[in-house]
Amino acid sequence: RCILKELESLGKALYGAKLIAQRFQVRNCSHHKDPVSGAACLLSMIEEGNPHHFFIATQDQDLASKVKKKAGVPLLFIIQNTMVLDKPSPKSLAFVQKLQMNELVPEHQKQSIVQLKEKEGLAKQEGEKRRKRKRAGGPNPLSCLKKKKKKKTQEDQEPSAEKKKRRKRKRNRVKAEAVHSVQKNEEE
């Protein structure tokens, strides 16, 4: 809301930017009655570890440097009509490493977990090995082969011998030119 108020106060020069900003979802900020500048409002919304997981898209270098000082806030900017996601800041990388170190379970807790599993009978025993499940395979490759032709037996050869004896009658067709010439000769 603060950004829309700031765009309204800047006048007709940024009317197009105001129309674009109105298309997006408007988030409520804590400055209802007395709006502050857009940069200050964005910084106040990402305080306390960016709980709503906002991305900040800006061309303002001052705002970008302030955003980089906060951990876990992605930064977008535009270079030659292309939106670019900036690489994580050193502050963000350090924060992630710190979280990973805190999430690791201390060695004494791992040992107590193993003891509790053994007590409850949930621990894996060395003698037991899981069997691999058989998965359904494809079709039998031998069933996919083409059928082979049978060798001809004597019974099969006899009808074929009869077929050889039969001859097809050839029809002699007279060419159209020959017919025309014969008709002309008859007319003369």
TrEMBL record:
Look up the record and give one Gene Ontology term from the biological process aspect: rRNA processing
What broad class describes the main subcellular location of this protein?
nucleus
Q: Does the keyword Nucleus apply?
A: yes
Record has rRNA processing as a keyword: yes
Q: Name one GO cellular component term.
A: small-subunit processome
Organism superkingdom: Eukaryota
Stretches for region Disordered: 107-188
Composition-biased stretches, type Basic and acidic residues, lie in 107-129, 174-188
Q: Where is the composition biased (Basic residues)?
A: 163-173
Name all UTP23 sensor motif region domain ranges. Answer: 130-149
- Where does it live in the cell? Nucleus, Nucleolus
Q: Which UniProt keywords apply?
A: Nucleus, Ribosome biogenesis, rRNA processing
| Family (UniProt) | Belongs to the UTP23/FCF1 family. UTP23 subfamily.
Give the function comment from the record: Involved in rRNA-processing and ribosome biogenesis.
- Protein name from the UniProt record: rRNA-processing protein UTP23
Q: Which organism is it from?
A: Mesitornis unicolor (brown roatelo)
